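Per reviewer request, we include the raw input and output of the structure prediction for the construct analysed in the revised manuscript.
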Amino acid sequence: MLRIAASLAFLLALAGAAASPGAADFFERLEDVPVMPGLIPVADAGIEFDTPSGRIVEAYAIGETSRKAVRGFYRRTLPQLGWQAGAGDAYLREDESLSIDFFGSDGELTVRFTVAPAAN
């Protein structure tokens, strides 16, 4: 019985660590793009499909944040994941491009993330 309780405690500790602040969360459809703290992914929004040229994925998040904060987070974070900054709010990695678009006003922001085959 003690062994079961110790195992259960260990599993709960692991689950807590995975959900702790600082643990990176990623979009469900974009498992290689992190969700900025302060943004909340919008479930069932966006698209995902494959084309002969590569995948096209769109994901949305909302938050009480600013464009400046979002841009700063992704400028710091995406290069660590292999994305290179392109023009404006665009990033490139291998044969894919990632664009970040903003809707609404700062404080009530909707952010769209789109990954598509890179234009050659």
